[in-house]
Structure to design on (191 residues):
């Protein structure tokens, strides 16, 4: 099995690459390096019925409710990958493409795109599903960054990501470009 960066799981150099960014120097004495986790181990799907209290006067789910559910689905995927507490560090963007109506299902699919040293990017796609026809529409997309923390709230290393498919590898590559842009905006640099 290989990490997304191409190094072998269990090889001595697997944790020394820049992509994974885990080095012996950064590990506190007496701690073990986290083992890699496959993308499929943290993939998450949440489903809820859109009820009147979730909607605006037009009968569409509130954007804030969608954002709340996106954060929950993303956090579950991050928890599953890290097996630790995580905190939301950023939401890169959130696109609303189609409304979700009262009585429809909201389906959220979350997956870890890339693991860095103490943070990871999770992609969340949201769909509406008509309960009578089964028709699904892509309604929302978001990229969120989470930081793994210990019981005292201090950042801790996250396990490397093991890609299983060509799609996993594409999302792994794309996540690095988004991270560079995110950090450039954070520190006011040109990506």
């Amino acid at each position: 099995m290989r990490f997304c960066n191409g190094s072998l799981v269990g090889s001595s150099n697997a944790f020394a690459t820049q992509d994974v960014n885990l080095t012996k120097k950064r590990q506190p004495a007496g701690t073990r390096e986290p083992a890699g986790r496959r993308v499929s181990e943290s993939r998450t799907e949440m489903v809820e019925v859109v009820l009147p209290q979730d909607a605006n006067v037009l009968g569409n789910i509130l954007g804030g409710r969608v954002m709340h559910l996106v954060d929950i689905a993303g956090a579950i995927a991050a928890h599953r990958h890290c097996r630790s507490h995580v905190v939301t560090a950023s939401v890169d963007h959130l696109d609303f493409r189609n409304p979700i109506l009262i009585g429809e299902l909201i389906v959220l699919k979350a997956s870890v795109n890339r693991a860095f040293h103490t943070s990871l990017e999770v992609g969340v796609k949201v769909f509406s599903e008509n309960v009578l026809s089964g028709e699904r529409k892509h309604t929302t997309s978001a990229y969120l960054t989470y930081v793994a923390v210990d019981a005292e709230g201090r950042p801790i290393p996250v396990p490397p990501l093991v890609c299983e498919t060509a799609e996993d590898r594409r999302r792994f590559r794309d996540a690095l470009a988004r991270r560079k842009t995110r950090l450039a905006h954070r520190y006011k640099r040109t990506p």
In short: Residues 166-186 form the longest helix (21 residues).
